[in-house]
From TrEMBL:
Keyword Ribonucleoprotein found: no
SUPFAM superfamilies hit by this protein: Ribonuclease H-like (SSF53098)
Catalytic activity: Endonucleolytic cleavage to 5'-phosphomonoester
Group of enzyme by EC: hydrolase
Protein name: Ribonuclease HII
Cofactor comment text: Manganese or magnesium. Binds 1 divalent metal ion per monomer in the absence of substrate. May bind a second metal ion after substrate binding.
Pfam annotation, one family: RNase_HII
InterPro entries associated with the record: RNase_HII, RNase_HII/HIII, RNase_HII/HIII_dom, RNaseH-like_sf, RNaseH_sf
Keyword Manganese: yes
Location in the cell: Cytoplasm
Keyword vocabulary terms for this entry: Cytoplasm, Endonuclease, Hydrolase, Manganese, Metal-binding, Nuclease
Cofactor(s) for this UniProt protein: Mn(2+); Mg(2+)
Amino acid sequence: MLSHERRLWADGYERVAGLDEAGRGCLAGPVVAAAVIMPPQVEITAIQDSKALSEGQRLDARATIEDEAVAASIARCSPTEIDDCNILQAALEAMRRAASGCRPPPDFVLVDGNQWDRNLVDAPWPHETVVKGDAKSQSIAAASILAKTERDALMRDLHEAHPEYDWASNVGYPTQQHYDALREHGATPHHRQSFTLFRD
């Protein structure tokens, strides 16, 4: 999980940030991104791809990340922003905002996926994209954990005002119950109008 970071540290980059996002495929809620800079040469086995961890393991790992990180930042793009520009651009913008929020700032960013090069050519940091990076890079995995836990907590808070959509369980993702609730109750301001919210 540190091969990418070790190569960059050896090249003289001390503050390598991992970037990832959560919530791209959801019908409701923001897309949330995180940037995390971990200390050089420190490998923490609890930090794994967030999708491979249970909720309890993610929360434990988040606490470890918050204790150990040199810097960490979380950012989001709202459903309105997603509708205005599309989900890919919103996800990349959320990651850019997260990286911009790191203090101290990164001197290199590792970005999950393969879209950064074509869409954020003016970003101020040298960068490398890593396909399935949350399973290959500790820094990206740490960012995936922060983004996922932050977004899940936000959707559970929104569930209190809109329990009919079951966001406490589906956290905004498309489930049959979510589609059924949309048919019965209509969309909320938290839904992404540019997504297919209704299906037969």
